[in-house]
Amino acid sequence: MSDENRIVLQEAILLDSIIRNKRFYHVFQPIYALKDSRVFAYEALLRCEFFPNPELLFQLAMKQSRLYELDIFSIYHALTSFHMRSIPLFINVYPSTIVHPAFPDFLQKLKSICSSRKNIVLEINESEKISDMDLLKLTFRTLTRSKQRIFYLVFQNNFLTNTTSDGYPFFTIAGRSV
Fold first, then answer.
1. What SUPFAM superfamilies does the record point to (predicted)?
2. What is the pLDDT of residues 42-76, one digit of tens each?
């Protein structure tokens, strides 16, 4: 076995262990309202002992074609480990996860777990290029017409081109519009 193949195998084993054994956790960063300096929401940030930079974990998941799996496990874990039900929670989600065919079913399952929670905000991660903006918009419209009312999607700066006129929620967080 070549060194390159050995590295790929080791990475696959590590990623599988991280996902299967849930060897990650979340920290919850407060988001402050600028006008009165009060905490108006929290953002869930994934952390993993094997990856000081969580973006590297997601890049590995992309490389191994397991991004959707890691993303939904992360979303699920963030929601089940955050116990402040009355305050909004922002969770990053990749565009490819939003358009994945199984994502609406995943949200439906989450809804039963999170029925008492209000304002779960799925913040579209800007580190993945959106390959089909029309598909993303169609998926968004489908989700907002369905019974997924506890979930909101927000777009970051480079995705806002036509979104506000289409009725997407709009937030401003510490200088970046989403």
1. EAL domain-like
2. 999 999 999 999 999 999 999 999 999 999 999 99
